[in-house]
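Re: that backbone. Tokens:
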């Protein structure tokens, strides 16, 4: 038998060399760095998109609230505002505003331009966000109230449809003039009452922007240095015989309003003016629509972003824009402007 000689040459290599291992590690680290960078970029994009979605959702909610109340303004249950009177002896409204912003008035819409300090006494200076507008809306609720459901501590409107109406406190219902009295005050079904007359609960709402979202720290029920600095759309709402504060939504940094005034009686806006100009011209009964700008911002800061934009909003003098530049301390929030023109339907009826 012939034996085969062993193969000549170096011994067969097993495993990898140190150099190959280092090269593999470097390649792996490069790939890993790319994957981490991709993950970070995707997470950042997701975070921005999620924040944008929250702002869009909040803005839709805010617009729905404001548009409903603006469209309902000056609804007085089938009578004109100039036929309304107030029953003598009505009790005072707790936390009421004053003057043209008072809760009980036969007027549908009133506004105040922003100022460095609060433009109205019922909004504490500590709460008011400087240079933001205030909007006051009043109307009769859309649903009729049965005579037997009238509560003592609430404000109502009693109308003789097409003729006249009277604002009254429920406790004084039996003191209404004879032509406005129902057949009885115990009827609980409005369908069984005189269809030529009706009773409605009165709605009064004062919208403004508060300079914090939470008032839980520091001084109770007041924005101070211990609280956050998230601007929040807030409203005072007539509930019973009190104006009660309610948060609408956080993240509303600016509200600016311009009012369309009908100067020739054709029920359409001929000029747009800010609140100061409408008051000076005594034209609140001629306001037929409202142009509204809301500047919404994210609730969380983005340390990678700086917003030094000057935003052009409705609400300037003589129909011009109101220019708002983001303060340096708030530039790390992303923002978006939402504009709307809202018809006051009850001021446009022919």
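Recovered sequence:
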């Amino acid at each position: 038998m012939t034996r085969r000689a062993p193969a000549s040459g170096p011994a067969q290599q097993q495993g990898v060399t140190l150099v190959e291992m280092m090269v593999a590690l470097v390649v792996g680290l490069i790939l890993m760095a790319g994957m981490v960078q991709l993950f970070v970029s995707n997470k950042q994009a997701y975070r921005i998109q999620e924040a944008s979605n929250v702002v869009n959702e909040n803005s839709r909610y805010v617009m729905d609230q404001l548009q409903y109340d603006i469209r309902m303004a000056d609804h007085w249950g089938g009578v004109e505002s100039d036929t309304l009177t107030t029953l003598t002896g009505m009790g005072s409204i707790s936390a009421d505003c004053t003057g043209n912003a008072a809760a009980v008035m036969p007027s549908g819409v009133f506004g105040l331009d922003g100022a460095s300090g609060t433009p109205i006494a019922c909004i504490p200076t500590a709460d008011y966000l400087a240079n933001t507008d205030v909007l006051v809306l009043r109307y009769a609720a859309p649903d009729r109230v049965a005579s037997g459901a009238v509560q003592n501590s609430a404000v109502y409107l009693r109308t003789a449809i097409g003729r006249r109406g009277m604002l009254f406190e429920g406790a004084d219902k039996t003191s209404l003039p004879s032509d406005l009295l129902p057949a009885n005050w115990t009827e609980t079904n409005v369908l069984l009452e005189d269809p030529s007359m009706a009773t409605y609960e009165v709605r009064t709402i004062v919208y403004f922007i508060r300079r914090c979202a939470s008032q839980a720290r520091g001084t109770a029920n007041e924005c101070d240095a211990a609280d956050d600095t998230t601007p929040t759309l807030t409203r005072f709402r007539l509930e019973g015989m009190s104006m009660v504060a309610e948060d609408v939504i956080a993240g509303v940094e600016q509200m600016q309003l311009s009012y369309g005034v009908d100067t020739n009686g054709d029920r359409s806006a001929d000029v747009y003016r800010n609140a100061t100009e409408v008051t000076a011209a005594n034209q609140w009964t001629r306001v037929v629509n409202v142009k509204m700008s809301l500047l919404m911002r994210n609730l969380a800061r983005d340390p990678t972003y700086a917003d030094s934009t000057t935003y052009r909003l409705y609400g300037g003098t003589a129909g011009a824009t109101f220019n708002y530049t983001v303060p340096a301390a708030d530039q790390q929030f992303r923002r978006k402007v939402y504009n709307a023109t809202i018809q006051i339907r009850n001021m446009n009826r022919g």
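Residues 48-347 form one domain. Helices lie at 18-72, 275-280.
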